[in-house]
Each structure stands twice: as C-alpha cells, then as structure tokens.
DNA sequence: CTTTTGACCTGACAGC
DNA sequence: TGCTGTCAGGTCAAAA
C-alpha cells in the first residue's frame, strides 16, 4: 500500500486536524492487526494531548509528550479524520475520538498494519532502530549506497526496497526511480558505479517528491486523510504499464518477477 | 553474514 | 453461477 508518499500525504492531512487535541476516548473494534493493538492502549492514551505527528520511514508517530503512538498502514491501511464520525463500515478497526468532536479512524481490510504504544524514545524501538536513512536526508547519498553495495550480489531493485539502503521506497516507487535513473531492476548491486548511485539517489528523491505533491498513488485501497484519492498513478512511467509504450522511446514496457513482486522497466531506456 | 522463502489477511479478478 | 487460482501498495522471521 502506502509507500512514503502516501504515508506523508496522510501525515500532512491528519496533523493540522489533531495536533493540540486531547484524546477523549479510544475505541478498538478489532485489535487483530499485524500485532494486537495493546489491550491497555485506551488506559494509556485517554486524556493525553497530541503534541506532534511525525513520520519515520512508513511509520506515523503521534507524539504524546515523551510517549508515542506508532501507526503503520501495512498494505491496505488508511487513516481518516472525520468532523463527525459516520457509521462504521467493514474493516474500520480503531477510532480515536478527540476533545473537539473529531474522530481519527483507522481502516485496514487486510490488517497488515499496526498500532503500538511506545514509552520513551521511539527511535530505539526494535521496529525503528535498524532503519536506514530517510530519502531526503543528506546521509542517503552515493557514498552510502556504494558502501552497502560492496560484494553484494542482490538485484538493485530488491536493495532499493530493503530499508538499510533507504526507507520509504516500496514496490511502485522502486520501479519508477530505476526507470528515471536508467538502471535495470535486475542489475547486481556490486556492478553499479558510484556515479550511477548518484543518479539513483536523485531519481528516488525526485519521484517521491513528485508523488507527494500529487497526493500519492491510489491503486485500490489508499485514500488520504479526507478520503481523497492520490493522483500520481496517472503519472507512473512503468509501474503497471506492462506492454504499454515507454513514454520516452515507445518500446513496450516489460514486467518481470523479483522476490515474488512484480517489477516493470523499459528494456531500451534501462541498462 | 547474505539471500530466499513463507507467513500474515482480505478482496478483486480471470478462467473454467 | 460457482469454484479455483493468482495477484495486490509491507515486512518480519525462518530457512537455505
């Protein structure tokens, strides 16, 4: 689902509606997410004020003083803000009711997402501790990729989706970034030059930036904080465009399978 | 250590 | 109209 642009779009939509608000009531309708929603979450969170909403990788971090509500949207999750909550529909699993009457509602058909409570510094939480650099951070650069690539035989597309190289890049944006960088998804990491990594870094940043500006990509489930669909799917160069002409050279886009995931590329533009 | 595979879960769709 | 198989935006844990 949500890759970085969709999570960031959600963050930007949700934050202004919830920051400064006090949680009046937490209602868990179905606790069976990737990990169970903690049974004592209501007790911990009710009465507390949301100070800030941050994002790390694809996690949303709702800050309550020194403690954090950590939310992941998995493949099909979405978070919506309702001025007045409509009746629950299938797969609405959690409601955070705030002191001004608005409701933050978590919806997730496949339940691959997560909602956890972290006391104290969230950075040291097992889920966040080992994450690589944020794509827009200076520490994501050609040097970093080059160092990681030493002796590694994996395909570059798999490495892009591995959060040690960079976080936030999933199946859609990995294919899109590689197209823009002119690199085949199957290229072995150790064979890529420093200069090409430089181009890849810039391509990742550019595609994520444009996707955020378009409100992300909506393939099926994803919607933003007001229920709005993303628009970037109309601007994909390769993803889900198997057989369609490359926007640059007209060659039909190819689909292959890597690590049980579909990859798309232009056989002429990407070497 | 690296790399691959299976698992979690529901729904949509293609083909018989 | 069923039924079966495949696929879907993530990522952790175990196997090789």
Brief account:
The protein is α+β, with helices and mostly antiparallel strands and 271 residues long.
If you had to describe this structure to a student in words, what would you say it looks like?
- This protein has 271 residues and is α+β, with helices and mostly antiparallel strands.
- The protein folds into two domains: 4-124, Alpha-Beta Barrel (N-terminal domain of MutM-like DNA repair proteins); 142-265, Helicase, Ruva Protein, domain 3 (Orthogonal Bundle).
- Helix content is 25%, strand content 20%.
- The protein contains seven helices and ten strands.
- Strands 1-6-7-5 form a four-stranded antiparallel sheet. A four-stranded antiparallel sheet has the order 2-3-4-8.
- It starts with a helix and ends in a 6-residue tail after the last strand.
- It binds a DNA duplex (16 and 16 nucleotides) through helix 6.
Which key phrases capture this entry?
2 domains; DNA-binding; four-stranded antiparallel β-sheet; Helicase, Ruva Protein, domain 3; 271 residues; 25% helix; alpha+beta
What is the count of helical runs? 7
Low-confidence spans: pLDDT under 50, at least 5 residues? none
> How many structurally independent domains?
2
Give, in order, the helices and strands: HEHEEEEEEEHHHHHEE
Main sheet: which strands, in order across? 1-6-7-5
Give me the count of strands: 10
Any idea what the shape is?
globular
Overall pLDDT level:
97
Helix percent reads 25-40%
Multimeric status of the protein = single chain
User: What integer value in Å does the Rg equal?
Assistant: 20 Å
Helix/strand-derived class? alpha+beta
Characterize the largest beta sheet: strand count, sense, and whether it forms a barrel. 4 strands, antiparallel
User: Briefly, what CATH class of the largest domain?
Assistant: Mainly Alpha
CATH architecture of the largest domain: Orthogonal Bundle
The portion of residues forming beta strands comes to 15-25%
Ends distance: 28 Å
CATH topology of the largest domain: Helicase, Ruva Protein, domain 3
